[in-house]
Structure formats: C-alpha cells, structure tokens
C-alpha cells in the first residue's frame, strides 16, 4: 500500500464516522474509499501543458 491508499482510507473512515445514524453497508464504504482515492490521485497529478497544434 502506498501513501495515497492510506490517506484515502483515513479520509473515508472519517466520512463514514460522521454518518452514525445511517445504515452503511460494506459496499458503501468501498465506494467512498474509491471516490476518495480517485479525488486524491487527481488532485496530486501533475498537469501537462501541450504546445498549440499548428494546422
């Protein structure tokens, strides 16, 4: 496991802990973890600028 997975798991656990009144299923936890991981990776991904294409 790398850093991104650990951070995503912590974030997901924190969000799940806030929803104490809801009946959370394991698949909901997995989906939330995947969403956190995706957002984390996207936010840390370096952006590349491409030169303008000449026609």
Give the gist of this structure.
Helix content is 64%, strand content 0%. It is mainly α and 55 residues long.
State the helicity in percent bands: 55-70%
Radius of gyration from CA coordinates: 17 Å
Biggest sheet, open or closed, and with what strands and sense? none
Parts with pLDDT < 50 across at least 5 consecutive residues: none
Mean pLDDT: 86
The fraction of residues assigned to DSSP E strands is: under 5%
Order of helices and strands: HH
Distance between the termini: 45 Å
Total number of helices: 2
Shape: elongated
Q: Would you report the number of β strands?
A: 0
The class by helix and strand makeup works out as mainly alpha
Architecture blueprint of SSEs:
Blueprint: H1 3-18, H2 26-44
Helix pairs in contact: 1-2
Descriptors for this entry?
64% helix; 2 helices; 55 residues; single chain; mainly alpha
Description of the molecule:
The chain has helices at residues 3-18, 26-44. With 55 residues, it is an all-alpha fold. The chain is elongated and about 55 Å long.
């Amino acid at each position: 496991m790398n850093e991104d997975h650990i951070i995503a798991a912590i974030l997901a656990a924190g969000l799940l802990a806030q929803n104490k009144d809801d009946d959370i299923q394991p698949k909901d936890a997995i989906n939330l973890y995947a969403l956190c991981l995706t957002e984390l990776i996207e936010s840390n991904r370096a952006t590349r600028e491409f030169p303008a294409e000449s026609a």
